[in-house]
Amino acid sequence: MALHGKNRIGFELLAASEEFVHSYDPKAGKALDKFYLATEDEVALALDKAAQAFDSYRYYSGKRKAEFLEAIADEILALGDELIETAMKESGLPEGRIIGERGRTMGQLRLFAQLVSEGSWVDATIETAQPDRQPLPKPDIRKMLCPVGPVVVFAASNFPLAFSTAGGDTASALAAGNPVIVKAHMSHLGTNELIAGAISQAAEKTGMPDGVFSSLNGRGSSLGQALVKHPVVKSVGFTGSFNGGMALYRAAAQREEPIPVFAEMGSVNPVVLLPGKLKKVAEEVAKQYAGSITLGVGQFCTNPGLILGIAGDEMDTFIRVLGKEIQAIAPATMLNEAIHKSYQEGKKKMLEQKGVQLAGAAKDEEGNFLGVPTVARVSGADFLSNPGLHEEVFGPFSLVVTCSGKEELREVILSVKGQLTSTIMAEENELSDYQEIVYAAANIAGRVIFNGVPTGVEVCHAMQHGGPFPASTDGRFTSVGTDAIRRFARPLAYQGFPEDALPDELKSNNPLGIWRKVNGELTREAVAGEVYI
Amino acid sequence: MALHGKNRIGFELLAASEEFVHSYDPKAGKALDKFYLATEDEVALALDKAAQAFDSYRYYSGKRKAEFLEAIADEILALGDELIETAMKESGLPEGRIIGERGRTMGQLRLFAQLVSEGSWVDATIETAQPDRQPLPKPDIRKMLCPVGPVVVFAASNFPLAFSTAGGDTASALAAGNPVIVKAHMSHLGTNELIAGAISQAAEKTGMPDGVFSSLNGRGSSLGQALVKHPVVKSVGFTGSFNGGMALYRAAAQREEPIPVFAEMGSVNPVVLLPGKLKKVAEEVAKQYAGSITLGVGQFCTNPGLILGIAGDEMDTFIRVLGKEIQAIAPATMLNEAIHKSYQEGKKKMLEQKGVQLAGAAKDEEGNFLGVPTVARVSGADFLSNPGLHEEVFGPFSLVVTCSGKEELREVILSVKGQLTSTIMAEENELSDYQEIVYAAANIAGRVIFNGVPTGVEVCHAMQHGGPFPASTDGRFTSVGTDAIRRFARPLAYQGFPEDALPDELKSNNPLGIWRKVNGELTREAVAGEVYI
Questions:
Q1: Are the beta carbons of B460 and A489 separated by less than 8 Å?
Q2: Under 8 Å CB-to-CB from B174, ≥6 apart: which residues?
Q3: CATH number of domain containing B74
């Protein structure tokens, strides 16, 4: 099926502009289809439709929203091979990865469907009245989470499905009851068009209002800024670079009505190798990490870009084996030209810094935008004195830091900025000797891993994907897992309301059977006793 | 006991500055004691001590933090009459109010003590491993809330106890495990000194680290800005004016590492009078609201500054009775000179606007900084065309808007900005006819009240005190009630950690007996079955 290249604005397909861009096949190095950039009128229409849709969609029951989310998953699957081929072509990623990512995307949609269908996510909290309390009567107060309004989602380059058009941000924002406007990523406009069509199809089939979803083509600096600055927009989800995320964050904070921007901006994800572990299995750990560093051409926000240990024979063994392993891994095409260019420049700059030595690099090959796996080493002292070494090189690169001892290791950990993850590779029995190190690693990160690799972000209730700044703009929230819905909801309290006028979630007889905190106790029971309103 | 006028920096009392200010008795119109402004060195020391204290305090158990909070409540009570007299003198508020507010302050501290002693507030979420899952094994992940770091609290003028030095912001930040630095409010420096001494005493008695609490004297524009911009500070609590809150918010957002400012900036708290209610009890409602408008000289963030209804005989009756009631209420001294000046100017400006008519005012009397209760009326059309009428006049003033019908009433509600509260005065049986009105009122506010008054903010689990901007900088959080603790905590996930290295809250056997979400189900039981890590 040929792609139409238009903007999807609610249930309409529009392309009044004469300005267009081409999608691109990074592996073959050739232009693909034509996509029209959204005009100002089209942007205004999408915003207007979103505001209109919010007026009804915000009151849809959890069950209805679940039907919509499930239908999106079904429609995505129904796109079949065309989706897989388009995403592979546009991203340069292999079939297995894209099929896996489609599964993850559908899994996320179904998980949020389950969450809102069950309904307890609204954190219903009820305090019943005490009319006779002294010195003042206590009123009946009941609180629950409700949606905030239209959400703008910036699709991510490195997850063309799971963190893009129908990815975690979209799924959680829709689940909470908010219309979504997606700014398509320039790196996979065809994939976006297919997915946006699937969402629109699902919305029509399940009776959602026009404008509950739109997808626009355009540049971050123009379309992106315009969306974030518009008064109708109440929240923003973003996954991408530090500069991109901060540009949106600053624009949103300077609005007359500031709004939150949940930007997940990646990090270097330090890995701490403790001596006992290295003594036992230095080679094994090196092999494990060669795999993690180069997974998906190193294009994960959780890619381990920094490996820390204490200088010595075991550490040398680790570095030697890691270097050897890295040499044997074939370079692969990166997501797009800009990412490849920035990888080349970042790596070059890193290798020129004082004290940095190459520890191993794969052979360069013929091919487009190849990311050549590379590892380097530097001393703890040099690392501490050079903040340039703390920066992320997005791609299959990792810097190994050899520290003089436990104290310097702790200093190095605390010197790096906020991180999505940190990892401790250790024998269980050495943890008590290194408690300060474990504490330090936990305190700088949103997720701390023991004897594993940071890549691979499980979509579940317990996931925290979001760390202290600059890993994210707001480390109090996660962009992966069910708690991601909390970004797009706010509490609303009802005081002294009659039963009939309360939302079902807050009615005394608990018709939805959800978990609620009633007078301080979690329960799924109806509110007991006489209720004074 | 004479006041020393010094800054409390951890366990030290310092006053190296030659710059000082006097506290002030607004009723008597005379200067009281001398207070030294914090020097740059003293500010730096307080920040340094807070950072140091965080390194240990963050790991204190809920039980130990509860002891500290309980001890603060005890020490505040032990201040006895000196506290009551000082607060009365500095605020101009009557004894009953100050004694009530002390009770509320102690109640808040004990409520947070109970919350962290019980422990479930950390939202522990556990997903156990599935090593055999296809296509990839599922890791063991466990998440809980942990403290964020030193918090700066700006004491509020209108609650010299309950939202100041040991108020809700301080109590919730300490409960979460964060050191607190208070910027004392210039309006009650003596009250601050006494309370700060009580907190310090409690900290020493219960073995808290030096620097877990400091209190500094200084101006918002210098000390306040310096604190908010300092990298050690990770979060800010503020209650006060829109301009004051936004100055801090903008400064915090422009930091290299942006931090959240939870500013509760007040609102006009619209009250909607539905016709059925007025038909039945217009006089009663008018009397009830005359009381609410003038409570505490109108100096509550939930003061009803805007009353909306549909034009007609009943509305006229309401306005007439309200005007008469207001005339009979004696003016009283406002909190300070600045608040009084701003009340006078705001009221004057309001009464000069097109279409605004005086509906009743109390007689002016001899006295210092008297807030004269005043109500005015205006048509819905004039209100809609003049955004100046939407602004808050902080004090005992309320504007009554008479709308031409249901549709204009809805328009008026939706035209006002975000609010802390909105109120519906109605007969139960007319709610279904006015559903759009109820929806509109709920959508602009953090708390919607049925047949009550917005003043009186219950401290409980279900309270939401924080609304859409500009009522608060972040309507997703509350500054009153137990959920206020969420402002000062972030989730941290542990992946694959051995039992011994996990915090107690996340250990499989649940030694603290807290509520946890285990594999999607809320339970207080230990994690069942074999646990693969």
A1: no
A2: B65, B68, B69, B112, B180, B212, B213
A3: 3.40.605.10
Q: Are B390 and B415 in contact (CB under 8 A)?
A: yes
Helix extents (H) in A298-379: 313-327, 337-352
Amino acid at A89: K
Residue B398 DSSP SS3: strand
Please tell me whether residues A287 and A260 are part of one structural domain.
no
Q: What per-residue confidence (pLDDT) applies to A528?
A: 82
First to last CA, chain B: 60
- Does any domain span residue B465? no
Distance CA B96, CA B103 (A): 11
**Within a domain: residue A394?**
yes
- CA dist A171 and A179 (Å) reads 10
Residues B317 and B391 in one domain: yes
Using a CB–CB cutoff of 8 Å, tell me whether B489 touches chain A.
Answer: yes
Instruction: List the CATH number of the domain containing A278.
Output: 3.40.309.10
| A116-151 pLDDT, tens digit each | 999 999 999 999 999 999 888 999 999 999 999 999
Q: Residues with Cβ < 8 Å from B506, sequence gap 6 or more?
A: B124, B126, B142, B143, B144, B494, B497
Look at A491 and B483 and tell me if their CB atoms are within 8 Å: yes
Residue A121 DSSP symbol: G
- Please report the residues numbered 41 through 60 in chain B whose beta carbons come closer than 8 angstroms to any beta carbon of chain A: 59
Residue A462 lies in a domain: no
What's the maximum distance between 2 C-alpha atoms anywhere in chain A?
82
pLDDT value of residue A2: 84
- The verdict on A291 and A215 lying in the same domain is no
Residue B530: what pLDDT?
Answer: 67
One domain for residues B293 and B256: no
Q: How far is CA B464 from the centre of its chain?
A: 10
What is the pLDDT of chain A when averaged over all its residues? Answer: 96
Which residues touch B341 (CB under 8 Å, ≥6 apart)?
A: none
A146 is catalytic: no
B477-490 pLDDT per residue, tens: 999 999 999 999 99
- Same domain for B256 and B277, yes or no, is no
Q: Do B500 and A463 count as a contact with CB atoms less than 8 A apart?
A: no
Whether residues A116 and A236 fall in one domain = yes
Q: CA-to-CA distance for B455 and B459, rounded, in angstroms?
A: 13
Q: Which residues of B242-263 are buried (b: 16+ CB within 10 A; e: fewer)?
A: bebbbbbbebbbeeeebbbbbb
B478 with A458: Cβ contact below 8 A: no
- Residue B247 sits in the same domain as residue B302: no
- What pLDDT was estimated at residue B528? 82
Q: Which of residues 309-368 of A touch B (CB under 8 A)?
A: none
Tokens of A416: 């790096």
Q: Which domain holds residue A77?
A: 7-121+148-265+480-486
The count of structural domains within chain A is 2
B132-143 burial, b at 16+ Cβ within 10 Å, e below that, comes to eeeeeebbbbbb
Q: B59 and B171 in one domain?
A: yes
φ, ψ for residue A190, nearest 5 deg: -70, -45
Q: Which amino acid is at A49?
A: K
Q: Return the closest-CA partner of residue B485 out of B65, B74, B156.
A: B65
Does A529 reside within a domain?
no
Candidates A432, A387, A395, A449; CA nearest to A412 is A387
- What's the rounded Cα separation, in Å, for the pair B297 and B131? 65
Measured distance CA(A23)–CA(A190) in Å, rounded: 7
Tokens of B142: 């466990």
B256 is catalytic: no
- Indicate whether A244 pLDDT > 60: yes
**At B135, is the pLDDT very low, low, confident or very high (cuts 50, 70, 90)?**
confident
Cβ–Cβ < 8 Å for A175, A65: yes
**Radius of gyration of the CA atoms of chain A, in A:** 25
